[in-house]
Design brief:
The complex is a heterodimer.
Chain A lengths: L3 E4 L2 E4 L4 E8 L5 E7 L6 E7 L2 E5 L6 E7 L2 E7 L7 E8 L12 E2 L3 E5 L1
Parallel strand pairs in A: 2-11
Antiparallel strand pairs in A: 1-3, 3-8, 4-5, 4-9, 5-6, 7-8, 9-10, 9-11
Chain B lengths: L2 E3 L3 E5 L4 E8 L6 E6 L6 E6 L3 E5 L2 E6 L4 E6 L8 E8 L5 E3 L3 E6 L1
Parallel strand pairs in B: 2-11
Antiparallel strand pairs in B: 1-3, 3-8, 4-5, 4-9, 6-7, 7-8, 9-10, 9-11
Classes of the chains: A mainly beta, B mainly beta.
Amino acid sequence: DTEVTQTPKHLVMGMTNKKSLKCEQHMGHRAMYWYKQKAKKPPELMFVYSYEKLSINESVPSRFSPECPNSSLLNLHLHALQPEDSALYLCASSQEGPGRGSNQPQHFGDGTRLSIL
Amino acid sequence: GQNIDQPTEMTATEGAIVQINCTYQTSGFNGLFWYQQHAGEAPTFLSYNVLDGLEEKGRFSSFLSRSKGYSYLLLKELQMKDSASYLCAVRDSNYQLIWGAGTKLIIKP
């Protein structure tokens, strides 16, 4: 069990669907992250929110849209995805965001396994 | 460019010791993390090094040499549950995590 909770655990969607992935943490962390991970590959950073503001967008296609409603919640809205977007989507949080020199690690949720038909 | 190298796969015997190496070339250095990831699960934090030397945490230890751009993770008294991928990640000058591809560790009885 992790302290970062992601829902749903599995999601199958068509290329025309709209869905959202949700992430929640109650550790008081001020930075939250979305990663995409393909099989046998390391996590690829997509977005970073620091103090509820988007601080990093790693040139992610606009069919992925992040949202941070408050310091505990992070959403990833999906629309018109492609089959190559099928992957494990990981949410993580850390006590402080990038640039603050913290030694605190990122804590990961169990991920959402996304399949695009 | 930024690069982190780890062996793709290693095999060890239950009860033995294994050392997983990681070498890195990054733009700046602000710490190195080791994570464990079981198949289909989230990465779990194992250790953090920012100064040269050895950090010990139970059966797991991690070593860092900044001058050599080198770290290793040492696992002692191996158990079957230690079968997993081990990911090395370096925080660069922009405080972004650069990830290695991971080392798949197979433990045999």
